Amino acid sequence: MIKKSLLEISNMVDGNGLEKAFNQIEVVGVSIDTRTIKQGNLFVPIIGENFNGHKFVENAIKQGAVASFWQKDQPNPPAGIPLIIVEETLSALQKLAKNYLAQLSVKVVGITGSNGKTTTKDMVTSVLSTTYKVQKTEGNLNNHIGLPLTILRLQNDTEIAVLEMGMSGKGEIELLSQIAHPDAAIITNIGESHLLDLGSRDGIADAKLEITTGLSPNGLLIYHGEEPLLETRVQSMSYKKVTFGQINTCDYYSSSVEQKNEGTYFAVNGKKEPSYYIPVLGKHNVNNALAAIAIADFFEVPSEKIIEGLKTLTLTGMRTELIQGENGVQIINDAYNASPTSMKAAVGLLEDMKGFKQKIVVLGDMLELGENEISFHYEVGKNLQPNNLDYVFTYGSLAQNIALGAREIFPEGKVFSYEDKTALIEQLKQVVGSGDVVLVKGSRGMKLEEVVEALS
What we know:
Largest sheet: 9 strands, mixed
Number of helices: 16
Radius of gyration: 24 Å
């Protein structure tokens, strides 16, 4: 993590006001939260809609911080505390991260997309770590605050940083790309997430392609080759471009895909025998693995190491995570987020699984889908297959429309819709038994991991 004198940090952010007596104090790491302050940290007081970190500067010092930024328009800076006065604290955090990264001998992989960012990040990290020292975005630190914090945690000897780039609106990926200046960038796909803010899939494609604004001139752009919205937009770009997907016009395409209950086997580019294995459920995750293989080739990772990295992969939680529940029940915990595209993929995974007595889905609201949100939910329900699924449970007001669609094709008594999670869990426990499998999926705000916990 960053280790600099206060004078060096002040120069890196064009700060002023630091008293000379404090110039050589060493900062070790950065924090924006007094609850997680470590000894030696620099505290950065962020101002949000409903909070102002400047109120906690003195407490941060008591907790172990050695200094703090202070936004120049904020009144009454405390005396006797090492302060660096900046124009705006968030911008100063971002500038500090950008300049720190520029001082490191580290290559950067940037990853964005509507679905699969975190899974792809985990796969890329696992594969590259067989050959290099790698650090990745921790948790969901992938926005305009989290990405700078991730960069400032990089060690001096880190060789590759794998940085996830999230967004909710136009211009956000551009900012992150300009901070990180990736050497290689991955766009996993273009889905429906953030339609509420961006209006259309065209708008989403434009926003995801902002990742190229900071891409090195000699950099590599890896993207989903079956997405026309990307294909038409990248043609004029001079970067080296590599595609992945399921069709043979892609540079990396899957073949001989075999879905097993413990994971997925596949081959690449027409080979008959599966040579790769990922301990991850879902054929859609093969696309993410193809992107990781492409990155590994770019960094000249030996083929046997790529195979090893994918085989030993560990995913961030609540993403097609298979859990052993009570009384012999298996649970697929995919409760971290949801969109129509990822919902379809998760249900397809469940339908492909063999050897279970009953297959049950628990589907929650898909949020931020804009004006067509009701029809999106209804279509998910209408596309469920009663010959492949035994019960459908929905949770949330929007998910009632999933139930409406499902009731058109499922027998009576097989579809349940709830807005009370406790009642849903009680009914679910009445129908689930040993040898069954339950898929749980919904947007983050629905907190469907509580259903998983109740079953496990």
